[in-house]
Hints:
By secondary structure, the chain is an alpha/beta fold. Helices cover 54% and strands 10% of the residues. The strands form two sheets. The chain has a six-stranded parallel beta sheet, with helices on both faces. The chain is globular, with a radius of gyration of 20 Å. The protein starts with a helix and ends with a helix. The site of fe (ii) ion (FE2) has 5 residues, from α8 and α12.
Amino acid sequence: MDCTDRENVKEKIIMMRPMKLAGSExxxxxxxxxxxxxxxxxxxxxxxxxxxxEKNGVLGKIxxxxxxxxxxxxxxxxxxxxxxxQTVMRGTTEMLDFEPDLxxxxxxxxxxxxxxxxxxxxxxxxxxxxxxxxxxxxxPKLRKKARLCCIPSTSGTASEVSRSIVISDNETGMKHGLxxxxxxxxxxxxxxxxxxxxxxxxxxxxxxxxxxxxxxxxVSKRANYISDLLATQAALDIIxxxxxxxRDGSDIEAREKMLLASMTAGMAFTNVSLxxxxxxxxxxxxxxxxxxxxxxxxxxxxxxGFNSADGRSRRIYRQLAGKAGVNDLERGVxxxxxxxDIPEGFAGVISDxxxxxxxxxxxxxxxLADGCTKTNPIIPSISEIxxxxxxxxxxx
Length: 396
Ligand SMILES: [Fe+2]
């Protein structure tokens, strides 16, 4: 072993972290919602988004299951897409009043992330801002007052098995990403029935978010044997089942495979992190309020192309393409986007071209500073990210 080898080993050990695949209870598959009947809790607060979970009867079902155990339930409604700190504080105040011993995040990534954030501030009301939390030397301990259960209604974000949250600034709309294993939900319940009423557009976009998680975890600088196993199977299942779930939302087999694949990709990325698709998608989301999954989907083929300059990534993409039965992964993802009616560039999403182009230098800096950049196989220069932002607008 020469000096360079030793340096490489040292670098690898620094990059390695203990793995955690989920909280203490992970339930998945048909009827897994019934698991609620066995959960011991006295006071349960359910955090959810718009009215979809109420309309499709899932919220009522969950309340009923908790009531059957003797628990008292309350609901915090109206978590918006890209939840703000203001929403987190509103929920925290309600929680301080209700005093739950179990918090349930029910919905897509926004509702689950908001529930996680409310949990942190409910446990630690002395904290007054998201910046205060981000800059803390040691992440505060949770679970003195309550445990967290997540029930996803989309197959994409995998917040139910992740240590991350994304909360937006009230005024600027800038997204703050934050991750710590302390925030891993204690209980995750992934029941495909909860996802059946998801509209096709959300199915497509959140599904492409899940595919991005899998592909970025695969080429991550922290990738390891276990994350590779999880991410590979997740990617293959998404490529097979996402078009089916998009075409026919009632296809329960496709819904179940997508929910499992999203969860599995989540287990991979929460341990080995992501790459610049996410750095750039967070930025586009902050600057132009583009839905996260849509931003990922548009960016993904461009970044596969960019990362292919790295030999290891090229090999991984080639192997995965072989397993998926496509000649070229980049072309395969472009074709998948076409099937899902996702535009080739942001021109189809952000109509104000001039503002977009003018803000590229600022966006490039923000994306480069994003926490996901450091595990991308190639760390781009500022001018390379600028060029990527330019090219991805036109879909070139
Ligand atoms: Fe994502």
